Amino acid sequence: MRKFLIMLLVLPLAGCGVEVAGTAATVAAAKAKEAEEAKKTMDQFKQNLDAAQQAQQQANEAADREAGK
To answer: Which pLDDT band, with edges at 50, 70 and 90, does 32 fall under?
Structure first.
């Protein structure tokens, strides 16, 4: 009887550990997805910045050509 009572007390505690591990895995997956989206956003920002710099450089070169005439 004593072993049965101990098992009844231990089982709910074991369940809590599983729940915590599941929650940690869910949080880790969410953070990984967030990091991936942040990287995509940063890559897109870099592409836009490069395009803007190239456009500005072309505008400067065109202005220099016009000033040289």
So the answer is: very high
